[in-house]
Amino acid sequence: xxxxxARWFGLALVLVLGWLLYRxxxxxxxxxxxxxxxxxxxxLVDRLExxxxxxxxxxRTIAVVIVFALMTVGFGLLLLIVLPLLIEQxxxxxxxxxxxxxxxxxxxxxxxxxxxxxGALELDPQSVAEAAKAYWKEASxxxxxxxxxVSRGGQAVINWLLNLVLIPxxxxxxxxxxxxxxxxxxxxxxxxxxxTVKSIAGEIDDVLGAFIRGQLMVMLAxxxxxxxxxxxxxxxxxxxxxxxxxxxxxxxxxxxxxGVVAALI
Length: 265
Known about the structure:
The protein is mostly helical. Helix content is 85%, strand content 2%. It has helices at residues 3-23, 25-49, 60-116, 125-152, 154-176, 178-187, 194-232, 238-248, 254-264, and strands spanning 52-53, 56-57. A hairpin with a 2-residue loop joins strand 1 (52-53) and strand 2 (56-57). It starts with a helix and ends with a helix.
């Protein structure tokens, strides 16, 4: 096979694999999520295995049960506390958006025009506000209709329930056999390539795992700090602004900028 033929073959293989992943996304997604959760939880399981209890090390199964219980409690708190609060603040935001748009166009924009000397900019705040209110009403109605249709769809409900059961089960067994799986993958490699691949994969795992876990901790800490601070100063939408700023903090300075601007508005 010539070099050009190899390149075309590689491109065709990538396109076919991409098409297969796209078509199989509903099937692969639960397993991908389970693998991601197992990857994030495996270091903690390994640390627990090194702890001795009553002069005996903790078994892999017991360590997995402890980590899995911690994950379950975390997601339970997310569903019972964070999600209802987020939905309530989103509803509050939807209700107040027309008033915010009216203030922005009726008060803030004329003030900026006066201070910056933009008198030549002809805008009718009333008509723009009415157009924005009408658009927002239509968009909200369409969103509610779509969500209602999805929630009533039997297939969507069945898929959601299946994923709700499948993801925890797959995550538990992946955590239980994660080290065995990695050894099995290494065992499939040619002996001459195994040391090199093992070394490179180990370096990638150390850097990538530390980055992902550290970034998640930073996002959580910043989101809680922003939300608590904005709540203490009496902002109604403190949680949703803090959560958004925490999520956007994955990009340096972007989360802080968006949080400050949104809070000021």
